[in-house]
Design brief:
Radius of gyration: 41 Å
Number of strands: 0
Low-confidence stretches: 1-18, 197-215, 290-298, 517-523
Distance between the termini: 132 Å
Strand content: under 5%
Largest sheet: none
Keywords: Signal
Protein name: TEX10-like TPR repeats domain-containing protein
Organism: Brassica cretica (Mustard)
Helix content: 55-70%
Shape: elongated
Number of helices: 38
């Protein structure tokens, strides 16, 4: 018992701590960070492990400690990477994985990594295999959190990976150990700059010179790894060969072996793709070659290994009646091998039989004909099949354009099946659109196929005619795919390659028309709900589409789109501009264009409910500003279409028909403004038009004064608003004295009729209505009188104003029971103001 007690006293040194720790962060056991860090070097493994757990606990409850002391913490903990105790190494790994790295994501991790790398390299060179594996596992963790680490130390890291993979025979019975190294290597090589999509985005967003400089710098930064990659590929191919006996074992291979094989093939694929990209980049940009830059696929030593020992093993055929899981593993490995084949097929002269084997696999994958080997012959699960298609589809265009006629037709048919079957929400949609683009427009240049190649042209027409219906299926839920479709349609339209079918035009109509129904009960009119960038593409496409496909249904669809209340005002104006440009280019007839413009201003909905006046509503509750901008744009475009009088002569009947329909208040103002823009002085309007306007304007003017609250009659804002609606009338009065006279006569008639009504009716509600109408007429006359120019115009109709005044005065002494004292007072005030105005008129 005594010996036991003494032993306990040695392994629990924290029990002797007696210093004052107030103000310091501590762990659950009351130890400070400094004390815990010291214990990580304790000679007892259990103490070291507990210290690491204590640090994790302390940092979880005191995150500020990590941010202020992270370098001191890392400097002390990095020693544990080579700890001779497995549990300590595992705890060290978990501490960095769960706490230290995630907490430092927003910080500059470069200094931290530079502190760790010497210890990682030291551990990679340890004699203990377990320590070496932990070094590779920890480096993999570092790269996950700070990807630039690989490019900074690529050459030395690849050398260490090559060394440990070459010595895999030391632990061939435990595939999980080999997988530690292989998974890290696959991840590192996936970081090599070999994705052409990144390349394209640089070219789109940067000046050419800047892009070339970046490419040159990138080429120089990774040039030194090319030779090392050649060695890595050779080692990986030999490692792959070691697994061949397992591949043909009855019952297939286990999960660990599959994982190793998958990482081996992915690593080879990344290395090959990178080497090809670097080679092409240097050729394209005339960059200098480097001594160690031997393109591995062209190398006489590596090329035979790739074609014979790697690709020559394709396909990895499973035995019959294997479990579904094992079948899926074979399919995945065959898919990765196929990706490698697609990379090297441009550079190596592969045997025809080998090429055909890969092409059969590609065709069957596109057609979804790859099945399991068990009795049920079920297809490969959809997620795995879809992932494989996403990897293979980018290579389809070059295969189609390069294969002989037989294989070309097979691939065209197989791809068409994939394109038709993919759902809008699937990522395959975007991938298929990219294939269509790259077949028709490879490298950004339109591809004119031989007229004799009718098979290819027929498939191209099928793909293009599908695009509008796909656009409607996508709706507004998949904007990236919609933009890709629209960009392709725009590019096709620019070169006149649309060749639209009737269904094509119908789908385009549905795309713009918010009232239509798309395919499969998908709501039409997706245009208005798409992001602005997609809308701009759609409108640019629309311009080219009208060249050979303009029709009345299309025009009606565009009008409906413009009247959509959810459409942004800027987009509405852009539509008008596009249609006008199409008219000027001769794609739209002048009568159709006039119809389009007049229908917009006549039917545009300013207020949500009929009978409302926009002046009575808050600005944000109406679309008054949008209609104003639209009206100005329409007037501008019409004024530049030729002589105003001639344009008005064409439009006069249409505009006055709209006036006869008693449009909403703001729409009536818009029509009046168009007439004023095109008319001249004296007016060129016909007698019938003058009559129509004289019947409409009194009610229009009365509506204006109805919208002015009594307490805001002198408000400058309301006066300016009123002027916007009054000015068209004033211009018309100036240009036609007859119109002025007729309008005043009709207003005098309104006053006279309502005066008689007040004398005869007993109902006070009816009387109040008549009284308000008379008051409004007086207000209209006073508004006209307040304008100096209009005052001169209405002077010639002073007799009509005097008759209005007589009726108002007569009401002041009326004995009608429907006229209250308040009403008589109102008439008295109105009469006095009207009398002053009348006396100031000079006849």
């Amino acid at each position: 018992m005594l010996l036991l007690f003494m032993f306990a006293a040695i392994v629990l040194p924290e029990q002797s701590v007696g210093a004052d720790k107030s103000g310091f962060a501590t762990s659950k056991k009351g130890l400070t960070l400094d004390e815990l860090l010291k214990q990580t070097s304790h000679h007892n493994a259990k103490v070291r492990k507990n210290a690491l757990h204590g640090i994790k606990d302390l940092l979880e409850h005191n995150p500020a400690e990590l941010h202020s002391l992270k370098y001191a913490i890392v400097d002390k903990l990095r020693e544990r990477l080579s700890d001779d105790d497995k549990s300590v190494r595992d705890t060290f790994y978990l501490l960095f994985d769960s706490k230290i790295f995630p907490s430092c994501l927003e910080d500059n991790q470069g200094p931290m990594v530079s502190r760790l790398m010497p210890y990682i390299f030291k551990a990679m060179a340890e004699s203990s295999v377990e320590v070496r594996l932990m070094a590779f596992k920890f480096f993999h963790l570092v790269v996950k959190h700070y990807p630039p680490t690989f490019s900074l130390y690529a050459d030395k890291i690849l050398e260490n990976y090559k060394d440990i993979i070459q010595k895999n025979h030391f632990y061939v019975q435990d595939r999980s150990k080999l997988n530690v190294a292989l998974s890290g290597l696959a991840h590192c090589l996936s970081l090599l700059p070999c994705d052409e999509s990144d390349n394209e985005s640089h070219k789109e967003n940067e000046p050419l010179l800047a892009y070339e400089q970046d490419a040159a710098n990138e080429s120089a930064r990774f040039a030194h790894v090319s030779g090392r990659l050649k060695e890595i590929v050779g080692v990986l191919i030999n490692c792959f060969q070691d697994f061949i006996p397992l591949i043909h074992t009855p019952g297939g291979f286990d999960e660990k072996s599959f994982s190793c094989l998958h990482h081996i093939l992915c690593s080879i694929g990344h290395a090959i793709k990178f080497s090809i990209r670097m080679h092409v980049q240097r050729q394209t940009m005339c960059l200098p070659a480097y001594e160690d830059d031997t393109l591995m696929l062209l190398d006489q030593d590596i090329a035979p290994l790739v074609s014979k020992k790697l690709l020559g093993s394709f396909p990895l055929n499973p035995e019959n009646n294997l479990s579904g899981k094992v079948d899926e593993r074979y399919f995945i490995l065959n898919s990765v091998l196929t990706k490698i084949f697609l990379e090297v097929s441009d550079w190596s002269h592969l045997h025809t039989d080998l090429c055909n084997r890969f092409l059969v696999f590609i065709e069957n994958t596109l057609l979804d004909k790859v099945t399991r080997s068990d009795r049920q012959r079920k297809p490969i699960p959809k997620p795995i099949h879809e992932k494989t298609l996403l990897a293979l589809l980018p290579s389809i265009p070059k295969l189609i354009l390069r294969m002989d006629s037989d294989w070309r037709e097979n691939l065209l048919q197989a791809f068409t099946s994939t394109f038709n079957d993919c759902k809008p929400e699937s990522p395959l949609t975007l991938a298929c659109i990219s294939v269509v683009r790259n077949v028709i427009i490879p490298n950004g240049d339109i591809h004119y196929l031989s007229e004799s190649d009718s098979t290819v042209n027929n498939y191209l027409r099928v793909w293009v005619n599908k695009l509008p219906s796909l656009l409607n299926q996508l709706g507004d839920k998949h904007p990236l795919s919609s933009q890709a479709v629209l960009k392709l349609l725009l590019d096709l339209g620019r070169v006149g390659c649309l060749n639209a079918s009737p269904t094509f035009e119908e789908d385009i109509i549905n795309f713009f028309n918010p009232c239509s129904q798309g395919e499969g009960d998908v709501s039409g009119g997706a245009f208005a709900r798409l992001p602005r960038e997609a809308q701009d593409l759609a409108l640019a496409f629309l311009y080219y589409f009208t060249i050979n496909n303009f029709s009345s249904p299309l025009l009606e669809s565009i009008v409906s789109c413009c009247l959509n209340p959810h459409l942004e005002p800027a987009v509405l104006c852009r539509i008008v501009e596009v249609v006008h440009d199409a008219y000027e280019a001769g794609y739209i007839q002048i009568t159709d264009h006039f119809s389009f413009l007049t229908t917009l201003v006549a039917r545009f909905k300013v207020v949500p409910e009929e009978g409302q006046f926009s002046m009575e509503c808050k600005e944000q509750e109406t679309h008054r500003g949008t209609l104003k901008a639209l009206t100005e744009l329409v007037c501008l475009r019409l004024s530049k279409m030729g002589d105003g009088s001639l344009v008005l002569q064409i439009l006069e009947k249409v505009l006055l028909e709209q006036i006869n329909l008693k449009p909403w208040f703001d729409n009536g103002c818009a029509i009046l403004r168009i007439i004023c823009t095109l008319d001249s002085k004296p007016t060129s309007l016909s007698e019938s038009s003058i009559t129509t306007l004289s019947e409409y304007l009194p009610g229009y003017l009365i509506d204006i004064v109805k919208c002015i609250p009594e307490d805001k009659q002198n408000s400058s804002i309301y006066i300016q608003t009123c002027l916007y609606y009054l000015i068209p009338c004033y211009f018309m009065f100036e240009r036609s004295s007859k119109l002025t006279e007729e309008v005043l006569k009709r207003m005098q008639s309104i006053v006279s009729e309502n005066t008689k009504a007040l004398e005869s009716v007993q109902d006070r509600e009816s009387g109040r209505h008549s009284l308000n109408l008379i008051q409004c007429v007086v207000s209209v006359v006073l508004l006209m009188h307040n304008d100096v120019k209009v005052r001169k115009i209405i002077s010639s109709s002073k007799s009509e104003i005097d008759l209005i005044l007589q009726d108002v005065i007569s009401l002041q002494t009326s004995g009608s029971t429907s006229l209250t004292v308040e009403g008589k007072h109102m008439m008295k005030m109105a009469g006095e103001r009207l009398k002053i105005a009348s006396n100031s008129l000079v006849t």
